[in-house]
Amino acid sequence: MSSNQLLLLESDKEHDSRSRKGSPRLHSSRFANSNDHLLGLKLKKVKRKGCGRAWYQRKRVKSFFGVIGLVGFFLLVNWVMLSSLQDHGQQQKLSLVNSSISVKNELKKFGKGKRSQFGVYGRMLALAAHALAEGQNRREPKDLWKEPVIPASAWRPCADQRNWETNGGHNGYLVVTANGGMNQQRVAVCNAVVLARLLNTTLVVPRFMYSSVWRDVSDIYQEEYFINYLSPDIRIVKELPNELLSLDLEAIGSVVTDIDIPKESKPSFYLKNILPIILRNRVVHLLGFGNRLAFDPIPFQLQRLRCRCNFHALQFAPKIQQTGALLLQRLRKYAAKPGPLDNYLVGPHKDSVIKEKRVQSAKASKYLALHLRFEIDMVAHSLCEFGGGEQERRELEVFREIHFPALTLLKKTAKLPSPAELRSEGLCPLTPEESVLMLAALGFNRKTHIYVAGAQIYGGAQRLTALNTLYPYLVTKENLLSAAELEPFKNFSSQLAALDFIGCTAADAFAMTDSGSQLSSLVSGYRIYYGGGKMPTIRPNKRRLAAIFMKNSTIEWKVFEQRIRKAVRQTKHVQTRPKARSVYRYPRCKECMCPTT
Q: I need a labelling partner for 13 at 20 to 30 A (CA). Which of 50, 404, 486, 534 fits?
């Protein structure tokens, strides 16, 4: 054999060796390695012996080519098998990181703009996408869709029980104008009912103030039902009598604003300061009345009346119930029966939640409701920063000057905590990016149907990109209802909020992003009161979450996942109402609910 042939063979042998080193699977074939070693020894022997008998040399050449053929055959088989394994592995990898690549592409696209919509969470979102893709066929943790059933079901609703005579309302008339949106109005109405009983006054059906934020004075509750249901408790009328209508209430000192009433005032304050006005002028008007009645100390039956008003007397107007039923029908798709709370939310329309024609093999959709409290008013009032730089700061400052002038003045005259300090204390609302990371870490998979509640998200549709990318089955009321179906609610923010209330309260699981939000508080309390221990609510501890999110640039996904689950699981315990806390949010107390044992 010529020296050129030997060099060529040596080169092929080195190439095969490099190929085997570069492949994670070739080195496992010991047979190929031992034959290469034998081949090298034989070649060296041929090179050393330049002479000898011709017949011996011919025999060695034949033997040599036989070995070459055998080795080549096994190398070919190895190569074919390796290619097959590599192709299969590559396909698996591609399917697993498909979502991750999708998120990375979105990150690049939005990162080119002036304002990154993902803030500092690009890395974590990519890890979340990969984790969701890997676990897309994995079963979700059992506790995602469940409450601790035994302790949670140990309470039953009983605020409808009465143990007193009807109040005649003989001392005069109580007029209340509630401020804020749908949730603040609900609280104000219940507090007004309790005050009417406390002061032995006749309640004029509460009205709602026009707000520069809410811009809605519409009635969202059934007036006749409200009056009739509470008639055994207090006297309610629709208007003041004619002789009082003509009075200038402000001139006679019968108008009391929320500035005059401290927050969480005790019953004694009203008996001392408001009752004398009523006795003198026969009427008082509480203007801008809201969260102005304490939860403790308050007599047992008055507290029960507050619960009775919230959970029993306030029924949404028929058009809200009808559209709410349509919303639930489209969220559940193939429901065989109404949900456990449907009767209390949509009343006579509960049966329309079920579609007449069902697909035989289709299952009803289980869905998670997520309340994103990330509207501009919440963002501006928080004094936090959300990754939008100078443009964001200017936008929020302008909004504060118009809508929160007192806060703007406070910023100029007092030293307030920095945005970083506020965030570390858990005082900033969760961003959509933080919310989706929380859901992914808890174990909700990509197939989870999610209903997102809330008004217009600050940052617009782009701010929801992370949510939409990781969870493709994400909808809002604007997606589920047509323009024609939403038209009657178009300019009525409180009515739109009522639809979100229905969508969140009826959900199989509910996740809040801000535990201080009125809607989240009312929804979670309603689910406790009527849910029978089967309506779980996810309540994040934002201070704990802030400490975890601060590690976003270095934390590994498994560690992040463990810490988020631990932080949220600790808030899922069943507890009775803490002292001085809201009965609307914590109805597990003897005034609202009765222990079953």
A: 50
